[in-house]
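Hi R.,

Here's the input for the zinc ion complex you asked about:
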Amino acid sequence: MIKVLGIETSCDETAVAIVTDDRRILSNQIFSQIEEHAKYGGVVPEVASRSHMQNLDSLIDLALDESGVSLNELDAIAVTAGPGLIGGVIVGVMYAKAIAASLGKPIIAVNHLEGHALTARLTENIGFPFLLLLVSGGHTQFLAVKNVGEYLHLGTTIDDAVGEAFDKTAKMLGLAYPGGPLIEEKAKLGDSTRFKFPIPMANVDNCDLSFSGLKTSVLRAVELLEDKRDEQNIRDIAASFQKSVTEVLAIKTEKAMRKFVQIHDQLPKNFVISGGVASNAAIRSKLMEVCVNNGFNFYAPPMKLCTDNGAMIAWAGIERYRLGFVDKLDFQPKSRWEL
Ligand code: KG4
Ligand code: ZN
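And here is the predicted structure with zinc ion in place:
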């Protein structure tokens, strides 16, 4: 049995996990820095790096304790090597390199996006290829996942990421960071038909998305409100915004499915949604419907594995390790890194 330690420090979650190749999560430790950043309305890179430095060591100890695995029993160390806030990535990479070097264990530099992309193979036994909608705070992409390290880009956002659109809308409504979960909460009690926001790029026949026009429409609607702090106004804008996002994701997912089937006509046809925004229940249920209508199986990791975590990095490490994709100790942390 292969046991891998995964370290994630690319944004505002310090996360460590130990995962096995028979798909068991022995420990999944997360320290969320949300409270440290909330007062600034977004993630402050310097605060994030310092917090990763302060918390990583004890999280690794907790993960080892909980799993009952000693450092010596690990087969490899996997770490997010990018993309992300470079200070945080450096902290994780330095720790991982120190552990790997001192124990003489292999190290695996994991692309954070590949972590999100492969999580569904940890929680469900699905094979390649599958269609992936990756929706996080920094990325929004439709990908045909052909194999570990083999991704075909079918479409992407031409401006903001979906998570970013949620966060910016929340900010306009005076809600805290990160905005996604709060918008979802408010939307539950809102009237989604009150504001007619655009469904951006819906009629463009490709899988690309755009959220900056929608953001401007929300801003205009907020400016026109008589009482910007009125709870029902906030709920209705949140609901109308979430409806537009859900609609456009559904339309574009259908287009991506058509493209995917043209490339891969074998069965089963599997669709996976992953990344922080994939924890949104309204989006999940709409896309589940799209899957039923188009003959695709729907998969989404459990909520806590959609947002950033160490298990997805450990698992991507296992997938790479099994194929012999091990890295040299001198690899560089990267702030930008396309899949
Ligand atoms: O994948 P993730 O944890 O970090 C990145 O790699 O970016 O995604 C974070 C993003 C944030 O923009 C957050 O607002 C969004 O995911 N998010 C949500 C929800 N939960 C998190 N967006 C909509 N609905 C949610 N329930
Ligand atoms: Zn992420």
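One thing worth noting: The longest helix spans residues 231-263.

Cheers,
M.
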